[in-house]
Design goal:
The chain has 237 residues and is of the alpha/beta class. It has a single domain (4-235), classed as Rossmann fold (3-Layer(aba) Sandwich). It is 60% helix and 12% strand. It has helices at residues 17-30, 48-61, 66-81, 84-107, 123-132, 137-145, 148-153, 167-173, 180-197, 208-223, 225-232; strands spanning 4-10, 35-39, 114-119, 159-164, 200-203. Strands 2-3-1-4-5 form a 5-stranded parallel sheet, with helices on both faces. α2 (48-61) crosses α3 and α5 packs antiparallel against α6.
């Protein structure tokens, strides 16, 4: 096993990523391993004033109509990002902003030996941007993730565990999600990436315990934890 390993959980809101990430952290700690938990979805910092302005307009014009307000906001974003200059500026700010956050949350922590369990990393935030781009989003997503500079800016996880969950089930679990269409457009992109990059895929409709057992089985087999714990000694404990 590598001295440093990044395991990422990914999937739509309500699929159970956070629950499984935290359960895996506890399971590995019980084995005496050095494990860190990180939540790593992009949170706007540089572009926060612009995001606040968008959200402010949404709240003023569509109070009590979350789904309708989101669609209206999404159409404005797509229209604005049709402009090549604005699109380039927005994406540049996104990459810089997110890369700095990942630097402090993940890269600095990964200097030390151990296992990093990341609740979202890279793919989720890129999918959000792909949705913002509308019709050109999927092409941009594929091209970006294949670019050498993405691998320079962002650490590529050693393992990606995708928890797939039907949109209706996820919406029932996470009531604050906009609507089922919001989940469906993102799930389609997750499935496309899962097939392209051969992620581990688990059924998010199973019980929490069943999924947790599958996750532990995958991680133990991939990292050969039980066979190497004694040999690695202080490198991982």
């Amino acid at each position: 096993m590598k001295k440093r390993c990044i395991i990422t959980f990914t999937g739509i809101d309500g699929s159970g990523k956070t629950t499984q990430a935290r359960l895996l952290v506890e399971a590995l700690k019980q084995k005496g391993l050095k494990v860190s938990y990180i939540w790593c979805r992009w949170e706007p910092l540089i572009v926060r004033p612009l995001v606040r302005r968008w959200k402010g307009k949404k709240q003023q014009t569509t109070e009590g109509e979350d789904a309708q307000g989101y669609r209206s906001l999404q159409r404005r974003k797509e229209k604005m990002l049709d402009n090549a200059i604005i699109r380039a500026l927005w994406l540049s700010m996104f990459f810089i902003d997110y890369a700095l956050q990942v630097l402090f949350r993940v890269r600095f922590r990964s200097i030390k030996a151990g296992i990093i369990i990341s609740d979202r990393l890279l793919y989720d935030s890129f999918i959000d941007q792909a949705v913002n781009l509308g019709r050109r989003g999927e092409r941009w997503l594929t091209a970006s993730l294949s670019s050498w500079w993405v691998r320079v800016l962002f650490p590529i996880p050693d393992m990606v565990i995708y928890i797939d969950c039907p949109e209706a089930v996820a919406l029932e679990r996470k009531r604050d999600t906009v609507d089922i269409e919001y989940l469906a457009e993102r799930r389609r992109l997750y499935l496309a990436l899962m097939e392209r990059y051969n992620w581990y895929m688990l059924d998010g409709t199973l019980s929490i315990d069943d999924i947790a057992r599958q996750v532990e089985g995958i991680v133990h087999k991939r990292l050969k934890i039980d066979e190497q714990r004694e040999a690695l000694g202080n490198d991982i404990v």
